[in-house]
Amino acid sequence: MSLAEAATSASGAFDSIPIIDIGHASTHEERVALAQQIRDACVNVGFFYIKNHGIPEETIDTVLSAMKTYFSLPVETKMKLYHRRGAHFRGYEPLLDSNIDPANRGDLYEGFVIGWEELVPKEGDDQKADEKPTTIENLWPSEPAGFREAFINYYHAAFDVGKFLHRLFALALDLPETFFDDKLKRSPIMRGLHYPPQTGPEDDRIVGIGAHADFECFTILWQEPGVQALQVLNSKNQWINATPIPGTLVINIGDLLSRWTNDIFRSTVHRAINRSGVRRYSIPLFIGADPDVDVEPLPSCVSPDRPARYENINSGEYVRQRLRDMYQQSIGTSGGAQ
User: Fold this and answer.
1) Angle 291-294-296 (CA atoms, 0-180°, nearest 5)?
2) Residue 57 to residue 186: CA distance in whole angstroms
3) What does pTM read for this prediction?
4) What single string gives the DSSP state of each residue in 13-67?
5) Using CA atoms, how far apart are residues 44 and 7, in angstroms rounded to an integer?
6) Exposure pattern of 46-70 as b/e (b: 16+ CB <10 Å)?
7) Rounded distance, CA 168 to CA 152, Å?
8) Rounded to the nearest 10 degrees, what angle do helices 28-44 and 147-172 cross at?
9) Does the pLDDT value for residue 75 go beyond 60?
10) Pairing outcome for strands 106-107 and 206-207
11) DSSP secondary structure letter of residue 11
12) DSSP letter string over 211-263?
């Protein structure tokens, strides 16, 4: 079945999220078989879990401990690194600083945002500047001790998973395995997030994070086991729980990759509402195209029965505009993104 035929037959009326074991991918044949599972998940759901992803539990435990300690600090201490003071949204995001769903009044989470950084700067690196990931200076708190190291170690471990996945996405789209290698090499953005327990009324327009689809190509999410919050919307307008499963990561397709695939890969609306009664922590890594990449529907995703639905767009400007829209609608500030 062609990609277009698969998309035409997909209803989006899923009631569960598939789990894919990526632990066996040493041969091309194994990767092709995995890519077929990923294709089915992306066409029908837009979300899937992966297990045997290779990130050490110690790396996850260390960054979780650092997050818990940091977010317990006084607000005035955390606001010293307020992310809007720079041009690139790095640093601390306070509660209600964003509002991703215009129907709501604010997003009830706080976060800490970083991009690419080597744990120890490499010496004698003779790569050309335009071959390196985009580097924008991160902001780092003076406490807790080990915070920077914990965040960077997890960042690189998750990014390695992302590099592996974008090769599987290429195979799933009937493209050469290395198709995305020179287009998705820039540094992703990572957020360490804290969702306080929500005790307001069910219809309150302030939730953990409102209903939305992600901006970039795809997201790699670690979520704390035992704390339900993430929900995914199916085509019947039913919210399906993305229950935390120990040892897994959640992968979801973003708008940019959906656009690139002519809507064959589904960018699914989701939200997070923490009514568990306890604090929730999660870490999304957002992987997108390089800022200079122009995105238009891939030839393998266009046919006479499914003509191109989108014009060419620059990925960098697209994501910048989506970020501006998100922060301009927040109730935590009267100004726009800076």
Assistant:
1) 140
2) 26
3) 0.90
4) --SS--EEE-S--SSHHHHHHHHHHHHHHHHHTSEEEEES----HHHHHHHHHHH
5) 8
6) bbbbbeebebeeebbebbbebbeeb
7) 25
8) 90
9) yes
10) parallel
11) -
12) EE--SSSEEEEEE-TT---EEEE-TTS-EEE----TTEEEEEE-HHHHHHTTT
Residue in the block written with tokens 């708190």: 141
Q: List the structure tokens of 247.
A: 């040892």
What is the C-alpha separation between 208 and 201, in angstroms, rounded?
13
Strand partners for 212: 270
Signed CA dihedral, 79, 80, 83, 85: sign only: positive
Over residues 160-217, the pLDDT tens digits come to 999 999 999 999 999 999 999 999 877 799 999 999 988 766 556 667 888 889 989 9
Alpha carbon 192 to its chain's center: 11
Q: What is the mean pLDDT of the chain?
A: 88
Three-class DSSP category at 184: coil
Which pair of tokens denotes residue 21? 């074991």
